[in-house]
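Aim 2, interim progress: modelling of the nicotinamide-adenine-dinucleotide-bound target.
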Amino acid sequence: MMRDGATALASGQSDTTIEVTLPGRSYAIVIGEGLMASAGRRIAAALPGARCAVVSDANVAALYLAPLKAALEQQGIFLGEAVVAPGEASKSFPVLAPLCERLLELGMERGDCVLAFGGGVVGDLAGFAASILRRGVRVVQMPTSLLAQVDSSVGGKTGIDTRQGKNLIGAFHQPSLVLADIALLSTLSPREFRAGYAEVVKYGLIGDAPFFAWLEEDWGEIFSPAGLARRRAVETSVRAKAAIVEEDEREESGKRALLNLGHSFGHALETFAGYTDRLLHGEAIAIGMRLAFAFSTELGLCPPSDVARVERHFEAVGLPVKIAAIPGSQPMPEEILRLMAQDKKVKGGRLALVVVRGIGAAFVEHDVPLARLTAFLARECAAR
Ligand SMILES: NC(=O)c1ccc[n+]([C@@H]2O[C@H](COP(=O)([O-])OP(=O)(O)OC[C@H]3O[C@@H](n4cnc5c(N)ncnc54)[C@H](O)[C@@H]3O)[C@@H](O)[C@H]2O)c1
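Predicted structure of the complex, ligand included:
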């Protein structure tokens, strides 16, 4: 459900509100430019009486914590801050425990809220902390990376990684409000922006071929901070994600699983690379989506011309498409398979994989022929 916000912003553009309608836990996702200045007012209106503990990472805090704090203090709702180190390694037990204790030390009560202010790492970590703190306090997501704005801040999946794999410890904990301020994306590094863009492309590849065609045509404008294309890309992505979450909040009917296109491959590669900046999440997903398309062709499902289009587009924007693009040591096919089997998409020893009949036509195959997957991975690992 979508409605245009009435608020005229400094840029002259109004904000957009997309509602996620779920039984007993509906919430609004507000998308706009310059939302940070009004964050205090918006949170106070949505969560009357709640004070906010801001969780952020050191990069985002250095850039934006002071103005955010001022906006919250104006409303008298700033409780304090907890700042973690940037990077995937913060989605871990050793960071979670002191974070929870810090939030308790700030004096968080059940009626207060955690304000997750950062990329997907902060969103997943802070959201999970909120889900277990005092048996659950509310969380407001204020995503600052492209990936977090188009994907991770919406839908309530929270969690941390372990040596065994990504996101294996976590909880569903829907936010009470999401504030996506597009202006904050201007300080994102080009590499991080590109990595987030992989998740934008995902929505086209899953179920919206015209959106993918528009991205092929106009991606250059999305990468430029000026102009409306960036905003349109974020809004289209959020609308797609919100609709899927409304239909299948807990990944039970299979609809939400489509969002995992490329993720079984990608998570395995990310775990192999050790969750470092050797391979960013979005980069792993770009390789993973290309692998999902190529494997679908191998299964006779997808025309090779669509694999070529996906490859061409990722290469045009500077995203990796081959396993060989991972710097340093290379994974063996058996290792990728073992890591894929750890992923949550394994049921009763059978691997379920999101595959495609073409661009915009993804579906879940519940019984992937493991011998074919093994042979496919062996060839992909050997390909330069
Ligand atoms: N919960 C979900 O549904 C879901 C969905 C997709 C991805 N994820 C998770 O999201 C994580 C990846 O998120 P990410 O790509 O945002 O990574 P991230 O949180 O590590 O952010 C990327 C980098 O950009 C910096 N940054 C963020 N915003 C900035 C800004 N406005 N200006 C300058 N620098 C900024 C961060 O400090 C960090 O160094 C992964 O852990 C992934 O598993 C979760």
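Residues 1-11 have pLDDT under 50 and may be disordered. The longest helix spans residues 229-247.
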